[in-house]
Amino acid sequence: MRTQLFIDGEFVDGAEGRTIDVFDPHDMSPLATIAEATEVDVDRAVAAAKRAYPQWKLTAASERGRLLLKFADAIEANAEELALLETRDTGHPLRDTRGLDVPRTAGQFRYFGGMADKYLGSVIPVDRGFLDYVVREPLGVVGSIVPWNFPIMFVSWKMAPALAAGNCIVMKPSELTPLTALRVAELAAEVGFPPGVINILPGYGQSAGARLVGHPDVAKISFTGSTPVGRMIAGQAAVNGTRVHLELGGKGANIVFPDANIAKAVGGTAFGIFHNQGQACIAASRLIVHESVVDEFLEKFLALTASIRVGDPKDPATEMGPLTSPMHRERVLSYVDVATEEGGEILIGGKAPSDPTLADGCYVEPTVIRARPKSRVTCEEVFGPFMTVQTFSTDEEALEIANDVDFGLGGGLWTNDLSRAHRMARDMNAGMVWINSYKRVHPGSPFGGMGSSGYGREMGFEAMHEYTEAKSVWVNVDADIPPFYPRG
Ligand code: NAD
After folding, report:
1. CA 157 – ligand 1 centroid, Å
2. Cα of 384 from ligand 1 centre, angstroms
3. Distance CA 109, CA 66 (A)
4. Ligand 1 center–CA 146 separation, angstroms
5. Hey, whose CA ends up nearest to atom 10 of ligand 1?
6. CA dist 90 → 99, 200, 420 (Å)
7. Spacing of C-alpha 128 from chain mean position
8. In the beta sheet, which residues pair with residue 434?
9. Per-residue confidence of the chain (488 residues) as pLDDT tens digits?
10. Is 168 a catalytic residue?
11. Is 291 a residue of the active site?
């Protein structure tokens, strides 16, 4: 297991010799002690990325693409090892890291490997006699700061488009879950990325993260994390005029209309909220269900919830693992108290599982709460296996409830009425809307939010725009320009 920082193509100790202990959230047994990056290391990594940039920028786009495709192959070739490492570091069930996280990571690198030499500039029909062409140029050194909920996937979400576009990257994984990012760094070196193009520095936000944000040679910060930290980062980045892309929190509305296929809505909702223990920014954390079908829906949904196999994430049969840290577990459980104080009714869960073999881990049972409108639990992001239930009687009311939060990331709706589906999709405040499904992602489809969920988009052409800027080049082909200051 790699435990050092990855700077300038090499694994090195942190300059100050500090370390971070990493634990397995299944039982809190020690997993690794890794080097902690501090400000000095960030400076070294940014300097290395800055040195590598001029060459990398001029490397043929097809060559950048070839390396990204090789990277995808390397991830697939090591998929089983990466999936197990991610499971141990985060608590995601192995069936999910195997079936979703690692394949999606490889898929992201493959998509942008293909994109690298197909991302086009344009020619603008300007004045007669002139040719105006627009090229998309990389930005330089990109700093990326990511959270702990999908660590390996976020490596690829940030890295793949940034590298395809010709940027170099300095990435700070979460201090809680740094292990797969370091293993991916090792694969990057094997694949042949030039030194300095990719740098990976686990460290704390207040030190390594803050230095990355404030570094004058960082052209852009691409941040995924909580709304308060994201806003603070945007303020700090503004001091140097550094661009910022913010992927922040969410409070996904998931609306079930009376004409929906209830069985499918039940299955989709369970995936939407309980996948990854609800630790997803796009989680379907607010069920908004029509009053005429709420009983039928809940009967089926609670039966399904009760049957979810919670346990050791390394067991391939496990469907829900522990939360990623004890601190986070406490936070999620504290919302059960908030719900009760607010007059909410706990329909299922709301506590740690009784199984003694899980007693040392960060486990929380899948939890469903019938909540009062406009209560804290229906407005604040809990980020756990914690779903609130509200009912509505008209489409207008459903929309009002759905939009009555500051977040605007993902949202879903279940209906067989075509007009209603598109009307709701149009009117929901969300960067992504899923009709008769929930939480679909694809490397080609823009991903991001509005309002308190941030701005900017991951994935697809939108991501390439995020990591490039337009340069307009004017060529006088045969224009005869009369003198502006005619003399004589
Ligand atoms: P967090 O904001 O606490 O931390 C995110 C990252 O920022 C970590 O790497 C952390 O070390 C770093 N950081 C913390 N303080 C910093 C500072 N002062 N300067 C620079 N960096 C700093 O978030 P978290 O608890 O790790 O993750 C959970 C949050 O992430 C949730 O709110 C969730 O919704 C959000 N999230 C959003 C998306 C999205 O795409 N919109 C995806 C996943 C998670």
Report:
1. 15
2. 15
3. 10
4. 6
5. 205
6. 15, 18, 39
7. 46
8. 412
9. 889 999 999 999 999 999 999 999 999 999 999 999 999 999 999 999 999 999 999 999 999 999 999 999 999 999 999 999 999 999 999 999 999 999 999 999 999 999 999 999 999 999 999 999 999 999 999 999 999 999 999 999 999 999 999 999 999 999 999 999 999 999 999 999 999 999 999 999 999 999 999 999 999 999 999 999 999 999 999 999 999 999 999 999 999 999 999 999 999 999 999 999 999 999 999 999 999 999 999 999 999 999 999 999 999 999 999 999 999 999 999 999 999 999 999 999 999 999 999 999 999 999 999 999 999 999 999 999 999 999 999 999 999 999 999 999 999 999 999 999 999 999 999 999 999 999 999 999 999 999 999 999 999 999 999 999 999 999 999 999 999 999 97
10. no
11. no
Distance 226 CA to ligand 1 centre (A): 4
**Other residues' Cβ atoms within 10 Å of the Cβ of residue 142:** 29
CA distance 446 to 144: 18
**Ligand 1 nearest atom to the CA of residue 232, by list position:** 18
- Which domains does the chain carry? 5-248+453-473 (3.40.605.10), 253-435 (3.40.309.10)
For ligand 1, which residues put their CB under 6 angstroms from it? 145-149, 172, 174-175, 204-206, 209-210, 213, 224-226, 229, 232-233, 247-250, 281, 381, 383, 409, 449, 453-454
110 Cβ contact list (under 8 Å, min separation 6)? 68, 69, 72, 443
